[in-house]
Write a structure and sequence with these properties.
By secondary structure, this protein is of the alpha/beta class. The chain has two domains: 123 residues, Aspartate Aminotransferase, domain 1, CATH 3.90.1150.10; 236 residues, Type I PLP-dependent aspartate aminotransferase-like (Major domain) (Aspartate Aminotransferase, domain 2). 39% of the residues lie in helices and 14% in strands. Helix 1 runs parallel beside helix 12 and helix 2 runs antiparallel to helix 10. It is globular, with a radius of gyration of 21 Å. The termini are far apart. 51% of the residues are buried. The model has no long low-confidence stretch (mean pLDDT 93).
Length: 384
């Protein structure tokens, strides 16, 4: 397959008309369409950014010793993993690695021509395959929003270069059995790539021991798997573009060497800030509470409009079924009657076209505005 000469519009660029409709409300659009963090990062991170002195020299592509040590320490505290700093490699936010990984796996000598990914998912998994000139094949989801690996055609499994899994998932919030997914990949010689950027926001996590020990692909055996992490969601550092990967030693080493040739480097001051953030867990607990409160508030408001808005197993999105299965009609209704901007589910694959995604990454004062709108008797969308 060849790399596409033309690309479809970026999904969120298609929301211009709906945004204009929502903006007609007093106070303007309440944007719940995109998962863009809005809360402050930990002070230790911004202090490290300003005072690292690391801006003078080229940063190490694989990551500074301090950054890699902080990532390894976080993996030990949160997951109970024994990971050395040498088993960690930096990336320029997780999206860059997600988009480039299929191409790099082909350069490594991968024989497959197919990338498997969740049928309802972040669009970059499929786009990374297309940009590498590979087949992008969606894996159906079961009723709980998890990968239905039994539905993968044998011919697609035989041609697979890698399988993407995202847990907790965007947009569904589903939490996967990552041990079973890893076993499926190892049995077939397929690299399993686990995007774990929302892992700090698992809502049913175990109360004892390392709190996230069951929520990483690395829990049993790193062979044949890669876990990808990001500071964007955990620490509200999306603007700094800092992430890292860990897993199969040979794969991590190859990625580190290849990315060095490509000049992919997290800026030195950003690495210092990321290390400070990874060494601090207290701010994450505060952020967890913010998102739990916002999810509950949004669920209540949407159910007050006659919609079903169940709380997710993880992440910070509500995955809301559209009446009659028409997500665009529901998005238009919410923009017109409440000034809310949400994402039609087709942005995350054709299988999601009967839902909308509602993001809790919005300041509390904007949610308060939305609540006042919906409580105003006699206005469109208001209580009667």
């Amino acid at each position: 397959m060849s790399v596409p000469a033309t690309l479809e519009p970026y999904p969120y660029d298609r929301l211009g008309d709906l945004r204009a409709t929502a903006d007609r409300h007093a106070g303007g659009c309440v944007d719940l369409s995109i998962g863009d963090p809005c809360d402050p990062p930990p002070p230790a991170a911004t202090e490290a950014l300003a005072g690292s002195g690391a801006e003078r020299s080229y940063p190490r592509s694989v990551g500074s010793p301090e950054f890699r040590a902080a990532a390894a320490g976080w993996l030990e505290r949160r997951f109970g993993l024994e990971v050395t700093p040498e088993q960690v490699a930096a990336c320029v936010g997780s999206k860059e690695l997600v988009a480039s990984l299929p191409h790099l796996l082909r350069l490594r000598g991968g024989a497959g021509d197919t990338v498997l990914y969740p049928a309802v998912a972040y669009p970059t998994y499929a786009m990374g395959a297309r940009l590498a000139g590979l087949r992008a094949v969606p894996v159906p989801l079961d009723a709980g929003g998890r990968l239905d690996l039994g539905a993968v055609d044998d011919s697609d499994a035989d041609r697979a270069l890698c399988l993407w899994v995202n847990s907790p998932g965007n947009p569904t919030g589903a939490v996967e059995d990552l041990g079973a997914v890893a076993a499926w990949g190892r049995a077939r010689g397929v690299v399993v790539c686990s995007d774990e950027c929302y892992v700090e926001f698992v809502w049913d996590r175990a109360p004892a021991g390392p709190p996230l020990q069951d929520h990483t692909i690395l829990a049993q055996d790193p062979a044949g798997v890669l876990a990808v992490h990001s500071l964007s969601k955990r620490s509200n550092l999306a603007g700094m573009r800092a992430g890292f990967c860990s897993g199969d030693a040979g794969l991590v080493d190859f990625l580190a060497r290849a990315r060095r040739h490509l000049g992919l480097m997290v800026p030195g001051p950003v690495q210092a800030a990321a290390a400070a953030a990874l060494n601090d867990d207290a701010h994450v607990e505060a952020q967890r509470q913010r998102y739990r409160d916002r999810l509950a508030q949004l669920s209540r408001l949407l159910e007050g409009l006659g919609l079903r808005a169940p709380l997710p197993g993880g992440a910070f999105y509500l995955w809301v079924p559209a009446p009659g299965g028409d997500a665009w009609a529901l998005a238009e209704r919410l923009a017109a009657t409440a000034g809310m901007l949400v994402s039609p589910g087709e942005f995350y694959g054709e299988a999601g076209a009967d839902h909308v995604r509602v993001s809790a990454t919005v300041p509390d004062e904007r949610l308060a505005l939305l609540e006042r709108r919906l409580a105003t008797p006699g206005r469109p969308g208001g209580r009667r």
